[in-house]
Amino acid sequence: MAKTPLDLFRFMPFRLNRLAAEVSNALSIEYRERYGLDIPEWRVLATIGFCEGPCTARYISHCTRTHKSTISRAVTTLLRRRIIERVANVNDRREFALQLTPKGRALYKELIPRLLRKEQQILSCLSAQDRKKFAAALGKIEGYLGLVQTIEEAGKTGTY
């Protein structure tokens, strides 16, 4: 029986994982060195900031595809640093929601332009048309895998 070798450098899951790790590491330099945030802490901050309102740790874990224990540790650190705070969850009194503190909002507002510039720098190797095609291709794969792609979709489906 002939065995077909797997060429990892052509295997899409391997390539996407490697690309995601490198992009994440490149962005993490922006928030690690200046703000002392690690990747999970950034994911918590970014998700809460994106939602522009309270959300649960479960929502953050699901949205970012990060294990709940990793998110829990990040939440603990951000609570201790007073970047986020707990608030009552109006939908489920057994659970609390998280929101940015004034310090957290200021950090988020300062950090976002830096990360957007870094994103543009990373994508600068692509033409405007290539960027559109790349975004569309990612959207198709996300859709095929059933991933919610907008905050409006998330609200309608109750996925998050």
Automatic annotation (TrEMBL):
<keyword id="KW-0238">DNA-binding</keyword>
<dbReference type="InterPro" id="IPR036388">
    <property type="entry name" value="WH-like_DNA-bd_sf"/>
</dbReference>
<dbReference type="InterPro" id="IPR039422">
    <property type="entry name" value="MarR/SlyA-like"/>
</dbReference>
<dbReference type="Pfam" id="PF12802">
    <property type="entry name" value="MarR_2"/>
</dbReference>
<feature type="domain" description="HTH marR-type">
    <location>
        <begin position="13"/>
        <end position="143"/>
    </location>
</feature>
<dbReference type="GO" id="GO:0006950">
    <property type="term" value="P:response to stress"/>
</dbReference>
<dbReference type="InterPro" id="IPR000835">
    <property type="entry name" value="HTH_MarR-typ"/>
</dbReference>
<dbReference type="InterPro" id="IPR036390">
    <property type="entry name" value="WH_DNA-bd_sf"/>
</dbReference>
<dbReference type="GO" id="GO:0003677">
    <property type="term" value="F:DNA binding"/>
</dbReference>
<protein>
    <submittedName>
        <fullName>DNA-binding transcriptional regulator, MarR family</fullName>
    </submittedName>
</protein>
<dbReference type="GO" id="GO:0003700">
    <property type="term" value="F:DNA-binding transcription factor activity"/>
</dbReference>
